[in-house]
């Protein structure tokens, strides 16, 4: 029988360090989350390094790892030991010249439940991801695990209702968004509140429109590794929302924290019965959604 209730967690961390240290740190925090009762645990985007996409530098490709190497080996063993599901976002080297921003979904027995490759790739000042990442080619997927059915999207994907919808239509109970988003320090005073508010609002909207739980795991800290730049101040504020967009847990802007909430499938079903958005979708009229623009 599927679990009617299970606990999920997002871990918010400062990851401005070398890969070996970040790995040890994340293993420790996943243990802490499991000890608090979490059964499905997500780390932030690109957990193993600082956010290197602030510049276009071929030397940063050395941070990537092949499939089923360091990150998978470590977290597979940890998931099996703790009996939890772990979402591990990492920099994937697929082959020479092809790299992805990816995430393992590792099941409670240490096996790979699924792999997701980030579909939407941004190119903004100090978020130069198109230089590094090939767009994902695995599509939007709901992954069955021994704890529940989960969907994993990554950061820039969180702005797209189509990604949330297509994942939810496959039966996802929770949408996880491993994230690395923050302010340009020089813009924070003028734009910061609206930027952060939009980020919260769009994901809460995905929760409401799809009747799903939404969990975002962000990083914190000022990452100013490039000389003569202001860097990025990651805004934290990781959160878990329920199927009506209600905030169940939310982190601070500047502290390392674990956010935990309970997924209640009976509640989810009740919400969908009362707000039957899936029932009333006019799929016969949605054909143009696949066009770049409707001219």
From TrEMBL:
Q: Name one GO biological process term.
A: putrescine biosynthetic process from arginine
Please indicate which superkingdom the organism of origin belongs to: Bacteria
Q: Which GO terms describe its molecular function?
A: acyltransferase activity; N-carbamoylputrescine amidase activity
Keywords, A to Z? Acyltransferase, Hydrolase, Transferase
Q: Which residues form the CN hydrolase domain?
A: 6-265
Which InterPro entries does the entry mention? Aliph_Amidase/BUP, C-N_Hydrolase, C-N_Hydrolase_sf
What Pfam families has UniProt attached to this entry? Answer: CN_hydrolase
Protein name as catalogued: Acyltransferase
**Natural source organism:** Flavobacterium psychrolimnae
